[in-house]
Amino acid sequence: MEAFTTHTGRAVPLRRSNVDTDQIIPAHWLKKVTRDGFEDGLFEAWRKDPGFVLNRPERQGATVLVAGPDFGTGSSREHAVWALQNYGFKAVISSRFADIFRGNSLKNGLLTVVLDQQTVDALWQLTEADPGTEVTVDLQAREVRAGEITAPFELDENARWRLLNGLDDISLTLRNEDDITAYEAQRPSFKPRTLPV
Amino acid sequence: MGRTLAEKVWDDHVVRRAEGEPDLLFIDLHLLHEVTSPQAFDGLRRSGRRVRRLDLTIATEDHNTPTLDIDKPIADPVSRAQLETLRKNCADFGVRLHPLGDVEQGVVHVVGPQLGLTQPGTTVVCGDSHTSTHGAFGALAFGIGTSQVEHVLATQTLPMARPRTMAVTVEGELPDGVTAKDLILAIIARIGTGGGQGYVLEYRGPAVEKLSMEARMTICNMSIEAGARAGMIAPDETTFAYLKDRPHAPQGEDWDAAVAYWRTLRSDEDAVFDAEVVIDAAELSPFVTWGTNPGQGAPLSADVPDPASYEDASERHAAEKALQYMGLEAGQSLRSITVDTVFVGSCTNGRIEDLRAAAGVLKDRKVADGVRMLVVPGSARVGLQAVSEGLDVVFKEAGAEWRHAGCSMCLGMNPDQLAPGERSASTSNRNFEGRQGKGGRTHLVSPQVAAATAVLGHLASPADLTDTARTPAGAR
User: Fold this and answer.
1) Fewest CB within 10 angstroms: A10, B280, B439, B466, which?
2) A196 CB contacts (<8 Å, ≥6 apart)?
3) CA A96, A98, A101, A106 torsion: positive or negative?
């Protein structure tokens, strides 16, 4: 996983709530068997509208998505995170994220930042008034800064440590392989098995 | 202090607990399908890792599979390539696979329970958010992303933060004609699509205890639509009776030991939930969605709501956008909404009881002119059972299309899709924009409402069908 320390970039204000994973990346894109090449599928249906915020010239090259509450609801497809990253987003800000999407984002180095809706509103106003506004998402200081706005955010220390160092979860877990083996040895015999042993 | 059901199952699976770290949780059962696994197997190959526990892993094909002409090569080359990738991965790594055409093939969340692999007190994961279905057995079951699929393949564990718990207590008794689907749609409308975020839901109370296993699966299935990764129901005699003698259920002494353990899997009297919601079952009636998220629902007897009636600006805005997308007017009655397509199937409502319920309404009746009705069993076995009961004949005589098992029109990854602007009544779980096909419009309903809607051509419940709508068998 790519490490995330701090990032500064222009923003895309997405004034929608309940942005579900079918909007982020429609199901027909899920037939691909790679982790890349999803950028054209990002918000595919909405991008057919030339007025959609992502299509506006002043938003080209923006890297911070500021969305309404309940972002990433719906399916567990990690393709939603890959699509946002393939397109160029480094961070997403919302007042509420769906659990699975949030977990997937943090495992891929896409920083999802929870700020209260009042701050999200302020970021929308600021970045709509001046699309050139730069937003800084600082994981070391755990704060978002833009214009006059400075907003602290929370992220559990373990997730932050993994992100700051770009650590691979599987390698970390396998450091405790003895614990796994010990657990396996004491599992009851009535637990289901898919294969004869 | 006592513990909740979720806490008991959690505690029994902690491999390692350390200050400042997520718990490392052992996974008893890992279900795989073609869509969310290819990148995980690639990751294993790149790092030279194997599948740690082949005996706790099983795969099937469901999302991409066609429901017609399954003996012919799959027409869509991209779908075919994805299925072939799963077959190669399973062969290379030694994973048990039930491919298209196999008698155990079907929607992964129908296959696990029917094989008896889903058992009380187990942890179950799959790269699919509707893994919550398996919680109906008192399992802790949740959807995971592809990175976590790779993690489980390699380690049979997952690092997870301990969730909070919410009791969803359903008092009283469901009135006649009100189903598990109506109940869960009403719960989601009450707590919202984000209401369950961070929680494991436990459905309890007299109305839940009376439900069959299949109805319980319908409830737990849609926990994710309320924002909760997992939903659970304490196992009881209904659960044990369902499991007894299934292919992978414990046998002999193991069965006795298992049941003794399963009986301990109830929230203690003095357990404290982090939140509680109480629903009065007696107040419920057939429930349908009008909007573009599963929380935008109302009783079938109601009208399409006026967005102006929402105090919250974000909800108001969402309702306006939903009505625009759905092509509906505020104030029109839900019963006045006409549909082009009716879909009966999915991991929510594709089991045998669902097909029986729909067939019971359709028997000696006809699907309305201009309405296309698809009936897709949740698994090949469900399909065979339906055929043995003659349900396929009921569907075909009514003018519905009887198809082969798979996810089908729930998400339209195969050819079963809505055309732009088309409207469906669907027994599936998501009414998101474009979910069933680009520009398609979805109303989520129960199998009974789906069948009545197919007959009348507009959203309706079986109570709306007059006796004259039934054609005596001899008159055809």
Assistant:
1) B466
2) B55
3) positive
- The confidence score (pLDDT) of residue B471 equals 66
pLDDT given at position A196? 75
Question: What domains lie within chain A, and their CATH numbers?
Answer: 6-167 (3.20.19.10)
Question: B407 a known binding residue?
Answer: yes
With a cut of 50, list the residues of chain B below it in pLDDT. 474-476
Say which of A70, A74, A97 has its CB closest to residue B432. A74
Q: How far is B82 from chain A (nearest CA, A)?
A: 6
Report ipTM for this prediction.
0.96
Q: Where are chain B's structural domains? A: 5-275, 302-475
* Among B204, B203, B207, residue whose Cα is nearest residue B172: B207
In chain A, which residues have their Cβ closer than 8 Å to the Cβ of B66? none
Question: What does DSSP say about strands B123-126 and B164-171: parallel, antiparallel, or unpaired?
Answer: unpaired
Nearest CA in chain B to A68: B314
Q: Which two tokens stand for residue B242?
A: 């369902």
Contacts of A187 in chain B (CB under 8 A): 26
Label residue B466 exposed, middle or buried (CB < 10 Å: 0-12, 13-18, 19+): exposed
Q: Which residues contact B19 (CB under 8 A, 6 or more apart)?
A: none
Q: Does domain B302-475 have CATH number 3.30.499.10?
A: yes
Buried b (16+ CB within 10 A) or exposed e, B403-418: bbbbbbbbbbbbbbbb
Nearest-angstrom CA–CA distance, B182 and B310: 23
Q: Which residues of A touch B254 (CB under 8 A)?
A: 189-190
Contact status, residue B407 vs residue B414, Cβ threshold 8 Å: yes
Q: Alpha carbon B271 to chain centroid distance?
A: 28
Mutation target for B interface from A2, A23, A33, A97: give the one with most B CBs within 10 A: A33
Phi, psi at residue B158, to the nearest 5°? -145, 135
Fold (topology level) of B5-275: Aconitase; domain 3 (3.30.499)
Who among B122, B150, B317 is closest to A192 (CB)? B122
Q: Are B23 and B9 in contact (CB under 8 A)?
A: no
Q: Are B198 and A99 a contacting pair at CB < 8 A? A: yes
B5-275 with B302-475: one CATH topology?
A: yes
Segment A69-74 mean pLDDT: 97
Whether A90 contacts A63, CB under 8 Å: yes
Is A194's CB within 8 Å of B47's CB? no
